[in-house]
Amino acid sequence: MNRKTILVIILFLFALLFVVYKLVIAKPGGIAGLKVISDPNSSIYLDDKFIGKTPYEGRHSSGEYILKLTSEDGGSNNVPWQDKIILTSGTLTYIKKDLGSSDLFSSGEVVYLEAIDKDEIQLTITSTPDAAVVSIDGLEKGITPLNLPITEGEHDVVVNSTGFIGRTVKLKAVKSFRVVVKIQLALSPESTVSPTPSVPGTTPADTSPSPESSQTNKPYVLIKDTPTGFLRVRLDASLSATEVAQLTPGAKVPYFEEKSGWFKVAYEEGKEGWVSSRYAEKVE
């Protein structure tokens, strides 16, 4: 083996050692921020390790974790909450939770960032319950789960679902990242009481199943079970539109048209309105 060959081998070994050093030994773990707020104040466990109490701000290695919150109010019956969270290097994961007497009455949001292709900006929203209506900066965008491009900067995201208390999340979108928002909605207190007219001068439509309703011509809309025991009829296909009546599960009402997440129906003879398709089915 000549001197030139030996030199080439030595240079190759040095190059290989440098690559291993950069990829394994010298590779930084990445640090991410974590902010947690809860009501009531709670103990925080990250992968079963106690890290503090809310309100909390800290720094941790990036990666996936199981985060758990347990109420510090010994006299309350608030249920614990836990879920998988993602800490992305150089970003902040934000968690806000309101712990209730059960999962149905608990609410909150988890917001974090995921790196994507350069110059792209995306928003992904999931919810419990699913098929919730999403509005961004006052404009209705669709129902959960939802993924869409978004402009850089600050945005107001509102998530609503019939029979649940809506939530508003303020977020900031930046280039090369996807903003991931996981929303949990609490069941509205209205769902535990008998429905009453909510619009002055109007009366909920009496649409309990009857021999006449079973003969409704097709196509028609069949009202399904809801958490509240009734389905609201609105003047327009929006949760912010005025409520004009309420339909009971099992009712069959004439169908006119469909928009994203909504059916236009005749809730009384000569009177039309919109119902959420989440709790209704079109029958043809």
From TrEMBL:
PROSITE patterns: SH3B
Domain of life: Bacteria
Region listing for Disordered, in residue ranges: 190-219
Signal peptide location: none
Feature: compositional bias, Polar residues: 205-218
Compositionally skewed regions (Low complexity) per UniProt: 190-204
Domain SH3b per the UniProt entry, residue ranges: 218-284
Database matches in InterPro entries: PEGA, SH3-like_bac-type
Pfam families (alphabetical): PEGA, SH3_3
Transmembrane segments: none
Record-given protein name: SH3b domain-containing protein
